[in-house]
Specification:
The complex is a heterodimer of chains A (116) and B (110).
Chain A: E1 5-7, E2 10-13, E3 19-24, E4 31-38, E5 42-50, E6 53-56, E7 65-71, E8 74-79, E9 88-95, E10 106-107, E11 111-115
Parallel strand pairs in A: 2-11
Antiparallel strand pairs in A: 1-3, 3-8, 4-5, 4-9, 5-6, 7-8, 9-10, 9-11
Chain B: E1 3-5, E2 10-14, E3 19-21, E4 24-26, E5 32-38, E6 44-50, E7 56-58, E8 64-68, E9 73-78, E10 87-95, E11 97-100, E12 104-109
Parallel strand pairs in B: 2-12
Antiparallel strand pairs in B: 1-4, 3-9, 5-6, 5-10, 7-8, 8-9, 10-11, 10-12
Classes of the chains: A mainly beta (116), B mainly beta (110).
Chain lengths: 116, 110
């Protein structure tokens, strides 16, 4: 079975450029999560979707960050304009949430972003 | 405030020795609790989870964890570690969305 697929695995860009990270969740899962991992702040939840609808975006750092989920099999996280402090590993995870309970999160391998 | 704490940043154990990684949570009710493992350059993989019932839960790779309500703890244990267990371990809790601890890096020495 295919797991959560993220692309690109590595991205190096210059400050001010637009960055788009992509995620394909596991087929049949109804929830998708974007996390950011840094040495200083650990794993932070940025936003999560349930049935393609954003439920909680309180972790999105600022207006430079946006996320979309146009359908059940695809999501994007966009940073525009990017800044060096955005350098991190961005993880996408998906799960099946039923009855309000949490399900196991399945993580992708992450997208390592470096902003110069 | 709801939180999860992993007091040990880094632990070193000898191969074959027993292991216990600590996790404490602060939550108004009994939360859903998880342990995840992350190998270098990889995503996180679920080791085990506690929702309710038996407070001793078994996971993959020979790991187990015990939920202790009186101590607000959910410590991870393994009776005998293998070199392949070297990784970062994260405790997490939540209901619909997970909050992760800061992680404990495990080093195994021969």
């Amino acid at each position: 079975d295919a797991g959560v697929i993220q692309s690109p695995r590595h991205e190096v860009t210059e400050m001010g450029q637009e960055v788009t990270l992509r995620c394909k969740p596991i087929s049949g899962h109804n929830s998708l999560f974007w996390y950011r991992q840094t040495m200083m702040r650990g794993l932070e939840l940025l936003i999560y979707f349930n049935n393609n609808v954003p439920i909680d975006d309180s972790g999105m750092p600022e207006d430079r960050f946006s996320a979309k989920m146009p359908n059940a099999s695809f999501s994007t996280l966009k940073i525009q304009p990017s800044e060096p402090r955005d350098s991190a590993v961005y993880f996408c995870a998906s799960s099946w949430l039923a009855g309000g309970g949490t399900g196991e999160l399945f993580f992708g391998e992450g997208s390592r972003l470096t902003v110069l | 405030a709801q939180s999860v704490t992993q007091p040990d940043i880094h632990i070193t154990v000898s191969e074959g020795a027993s292991l216990e990684l600590r996790c404490n949570y602060s939550y108004g009710a009994t939360p859903y609790l998880f342990w995840y493992v992350q190998s270098p350059g990889q995503g996180l993989q679920l080791l085990l989870k506690y929702f309710s019932g038996d407070t001793l839960v078994q996971g993959i790779k020979g790991f187990e964890a015990e939920f202790k309500r009186s101590q607000s703890s959910f410590n991870l244990r393994k009776p005998s570690v293998h070199w392949s267990d070297a990784a970062e371990y994260f405790c997490a809790f939540g209901n619909e969305k997970l909050t992760f601890g800061t992680g404990t890096r495990l080093t195994i020495i021969p």
